[in-house]
Design a protein that fits this description.
3-stranded antiparallel beta sheet, mainly alpha, about 240 residues, Outer Surface Protein A, domain 3, DUF2063_N_sf, about 10% strand, DNA-binding, DNA binding, DUF2063, 5 strands, Putative DNA-binding domain-containing protein
Length: about 240
């Protein structure tokens, strides 16, 4: 039997799809199943348990591409992006990026942004809600004094080349598929956690541009009083 550390590392590699080496096979009890069959059980349990957990985070993706396609895609994902910590609720951040390069998803290029929208929803729903900044007078004075603002902890912004807000409405049953034109211009969504619920707001180009600058930590941003009031009212910003 080999060194325990070597066996553990070999086990991890094998779970992720590599061939088992002799030291690992020799460490496994050889009965009627055999070492290789025992390892396949662990491989299958790893893929199925993680992909099943992820399936519940992305119901709109499932509505878009179907359960069979999504399950298969997530099985590939867990092998490419295995968990790096024990917090299962935080696992899945890279699904959107994975769909952006997943060859089987080339025919649905907007799948990545739908997954990103769902991840932001999941992330906010599991976050501790922070206090909302509401003092417009103080905000205006702070802005005039050169104080910077940043995207609020309760907020996320998704800027898409696709009509992502319309896609969200169609996939969640708020509009019919006939009302959706995927060839329409891109849209930007502001997601805000308020009262334990995530709300979705379609942003116009000016508001989206201002939030993009804030999110990018751009210096010397000038925000008019009306825009500042709107961003505070939306729950989108906080003082730095």
């Amino acid at each position: 039997m080999g060194d325990l550390g070597d066996i553990q590392r070999s086990m991890a590699r094998t779970i992720l799809g590599q061939e088992a080496d002799d030291s690992l096979l020799g460490a496994i009890k050889d009965d009627h199943l055999g070492p290789a069959a025992r390892l396949r059980i662990h491989q299958n349990n790893f893929r199925e348990s993680l992909s099943e957990a992820l399936l519940g985070i992305f119901p709109l993706c499932q509505a878009l591409v179907g359960e069979l396609f999504l399950r298969q895609a997530l099985r590939h994902f867990v092998l490419e992006y295995p968990p790096v910590d024990a917090a299962l609720y935080a696992y899945g951040r890279d699904v959107a990026n994975f769909f952006g390069i997943y060859s089987a998803a080339k025919s649905v290029p907007y799948l990545a942004d739908v997954a990103r929208l769902e991840w932001y929803t999941h992330e906010l729903a599991n976050a501790e809600e922070a206090a909302v900044y509401e003092d417009i007078t103080a905000a205006q004075a702070a802005h005039e004094a050169g104080m910077g603002f940043a995207l609020h902890d309760n907020a996320r912004v998704l800027d898409s080349n696709f009509p992502i807000y319309d896609l969200w409405q169609a996939l969640s049953g708020q509009i019919t598929p006939d009302d959706l034109n995927i060839e329409d211009d891109g849209q930007t969504i502001l997601l805000v956690l308020h009262g334990g619920q995530v709300f979705y707001q379609l942003l116009d180009a000016e508001t989206a541009g201002t939030l993009a600058k804030l999110s990018g930590d751009q210096k010397d941003i000038t925000i008019g009083s009306a825009m500042l009031e709107e961003l505070i009212d939306r729950g989108a910003i906080k003082p730095k």
